[in-house]
Amino acid sequence: MRIFYFIFVLSFLSLKVSATHNRAGEITYKCLGGTTYEITITTYTKLSGESINADRNELYLYYDYFTPGAGDTISRNGNFVDDIPNDVRTNYYKSVYTYPGPGIYTLAMSDLNRNADVVNIPNAINVPFFIMSKLYIAPFVANNCNNSPILTYRPVDQACIGKLFMHNPGAVDIDGDSLSYSLDSCRLDPSTVTFGYSIPDSVRVDKFGTFIWNFPVQLGEFNFVIIISEWRKNASNRYVKIGEVRRDMQILVRNCTNNPPVVTATNPCIEAGTLGQVDVQANDADGNFVRLFAEGLPLQVNSNPVPFTQGIGGIGQIQTSLFWNTNCSHVLNIPYNIVFKATDNGNPSLVGIVNSAIRVIAPKPINLQATPSTNTIILSWQASICNDVESYKIYRRKGSINVPFDPCFQGLPNGYGYNLIATVNGTISSIIDNQNGVGLIIGESYCYRVVAVYENGAESYYSDEICAELKKDAPVLTHVSIENTAENGQIYLAWSFPSDLDTNIHEGPYKYKIARRQAQNNYEIIDSTAISNNLFDTIYFNNNINTIANQYEYKIELYNEGSLRYKIAESTPSQSILLRSNSFDNRIELKWAAVTPWENQHYTIYRQLPGASNFDSLTTVSTLSYNDTGLVNGASYCYYILSKGEYSRNDITKPLLNKSNIHCAEPIDLEAPCPPNVSIIYDCNNDKNELNWNNPNLSCADDVVKYHIYYKPTSDASFSKIATINDANTTFFLHNNEGSLAGCYYVTALDSFENESIQITPVCVDNCPLYQLPNVFTPDGDGINDYFTPFPYKFVESIDLKIYNRWGALVFETKNPDINWNGIGVFDNPVSQGVYFYHCVVNEIRLSGIEPRELKGNVQIFKNGNEIPQKK
Fold first, then answer.
1. CA distances from 29 to 37, 151, 170, 172, 739 (A)
2. Same domain, 288 and 230
């Protein structure tokens, strides 16, 4: 009913209008410093017929649509009028405004009216033309200053029936922000879509902002809205939205035989400091004369912009190249975009569009050097030639690897085993790697790469790899293997001798001492090898220890036993593998742990079945756990683990095989079923919640027999059981909750042993309060739309509504959700027609309790008689 009143009023107003004219437009802004902005309304209007008489010399600009009184009437200067083909006049209106501080401000303009006969806007001649943009003044943006994108291509274009149509706004962001694009609807205000508006299914916008219409099928004029959003990284290195321009554009679909030009362009990746090349070509199948245009940030940067002659042309084809002499200032963490537009001289003139995405990537750090010293490696590199490097990232892996070079990739790609070990200030060009104070491991080959990071978040190419090894001047443990699992069991120890030991300094003879500990206890020397003049006695059996219950850690100490007795060096410690388990219904979960100085690539699990005498290989995994399923409850299963690993250094034996203890366990049904995954279908009209969940018998259990349903009506209430479903195959429940949808639910599954699944994260639904206010009413006593009332609503406890005139004076207030304002002001006098601003706090009944929601907007009052405003 409210929609009918609105259309009725607009239709009535249109009787007084002799011409309509708005085709397209947008609002852009430019930062003048601090929170002061120059705002430009650009409109594209009809020139022909009586429409020229409807041109506006001034428009009303909302500096913020939701702040009462934050707006002004701004004038059009005669010098800001630009007539272009296709019956279009371009109009510019400029204003300067200083905002009070950081915030999100909605710039808006509404004008009567759109031009007639827009196909996808019913009764367009009587529909207001509304455009808006969003200005974000973000505290993390330097000086609170941000400029909106500049839209370089006109928004009125021509298409042909049955022919592919493309259009691009040619958005250029002079701040270098990342841009994204999406379609929106034509609107009457920020929250109201134009009545009856539609978008053909064959219309879309790609990631470069190109509007694509796959073969229009209907003649006429169509309006669409493209949203251009700006994104910038904040202090947490996350992209956040910092602006938005909405362009209302118009496409004139004609019946023609002409074909649009086809444009192609390359997408180069350029190392900063070198000459980049973009090749572009436009072909016209009809042999028409073609002109080429280009817009994009590379053509407008302050330093070494791309030179290009706009409008160069040729008959049937134009082929050219753009050359960009790049430098460090061009390094960016996102691609640059150049939008190429080719126009032909057919009847009508048609357009072809293509985007060239250009990456400018910083050069790699050079002269990377690695110098080993004791248990550290000193890494150094040459400072970057670019002076705006913010930091360097240092990556390390064990062992060398070739990383294929991709000229379009910044930084170091994942998947090659490199780990980030340090990030240092851009003024630093060396670090000492001591593995965070633990020390590097003898026996490993450490390989490094460095990447430079820039202030805007861009990363350079990765450096060449450099590798280094510590001197092998200490024993290197290779085996800590359990050979006998018993209370008086045995562990086999072996190590690689210190082949790089300087025997001139340490003359010998030598002895190895074996040190052992459990948990975090202190090491104790348990034995030693015989004194010898060589270093080759590198095997030891540790006997009579409890390998069933305990895990042991060892290290090997090398001593000089000559005239001066002293410890020369010691190995990096290593642990035995301790295997344990958890028993469940028909399965055993195996878990093991061991800390070793070498890298274990995988683990083979050996199993002995009940009653069997031998162990057989079960499977090989790379994790530290495994679930053995399909077992018989109460039967005994025994296991051990064989690890396979190696050092990256090549002069140490490979592979390194080590055994765990033998461990036996019996599966038992103490395991609850998996918790069902619950979803809700809720019916706002009938206040019903339908719960649906999965049957765990089909996934992780086989003996679920029933379900419990738990519920709480508000977020701070306690759960209570509201139902039991005694059939495992019944996986839904309908909850009628006496007029409220709000609540949280979870479902548990129970097996035949009454094991109940855990409570998982509940699923919650909230009431769906609906409270909207119209933007027009006519309190003139004619019985039609005489009261300002909300649309039908529900789940609203109360409101606090205040209505102000354009000077900020209060004219009406109420707490009644029905409002029923008849246009009588606070002094019992009828208010005059015009625009009034409201601020309404709606107290909604929600899952969390009573929650206030703020509404801001305006309502326009019209009255019959001579006071009806004339359209301009």
1. 6, 11, 16, 13, 48
2. no
Q: Which residue in 593, 588, 603 sits closest to 637, CA to CA? A: 588
| Residue 168 CB neighbour total at 10 angstroms | 27
Residue 493 corresponds to which tokens in the numbers above?
């120890």
Note whether 618 and 684 are same-domain residues.
no
How many C-beta neighbours within 10 Å does residue 651 have?
12
Number of domains in the chain: 7
Q: Within this chain, do residues 88 and 170 fall inside the same structural domain, yes or no? A: yes
Say how far apart CA 727 and CA 697 lie, in whole Å. 12
Alpha carbon of residue 551 to chain centroid: 45
For tokens 């030598």, the residue is 510
Query: For residue 44, what are the contacts with CB-CB under 8 A and spacing of at least 6?
Result: 22, 23, 24, 25, 88, 89, 90, 91, 154, 155, 156, 250
Report helix, strand or coil for 13.
helix
Between CA 94 and CA 79 the distance in angstroms is 12
pTM of the model: 0.68
Which two tokens mark 425?
A: 């200030």
Asked if the bond preceding 509 is cis, omega within 30° of 0, the reply is yes
* 257, part of any domain: no
For 375-401, write each residue's pLDDT tens digit.
899 999 999 999 889 999 999 999 999
Count the alpha carbons within 13 Å of 586 in the hemisphere toward its beta carbon: 8
pLDDT digits (tens, 9 = 90+) for 801-851: 999 998 889 999 999 999 999 999 988 889 998 899 999 999 988 888 888
497 vs 48: CA distance, rounded Å: 96
What is the per-residue DSSP string for 804-835? E-TTS-EEEEE--TT--B-SB-TTSSBPPSEE
Q: Residue 12 belongs to what H/E stretch?
A: helix 2-14
CA distances from 480 to 552, 643, 664 (A): 9, 11, 21
Q: Could you tell me if 83 and 90 are in contact, meaning their C-beta atoms sit under 8 angstroms apart?
A: yes
Extract the tokens encoding 829.
């006098």
Nearest-CA neighbor of 318 among 308, 332, 303, 330? Answer: 308
> How far is residue 528's CA from residue 509's CA, in Å, rounded to a whole number?
14
* pLDDT at residue 171 is higher than 90: yes
10 Å Cβ neighbour count for 727?
A: 9
Determine the structural domain holding residue 758 and report its residue range: 678-765
Cα 241 to Cα 138, 238, 244: the distances in Å are 9, 10, 8
Are residues 559 and 656 located together in one domain of the fold? no
Residues 480 and 455 in one domain: no
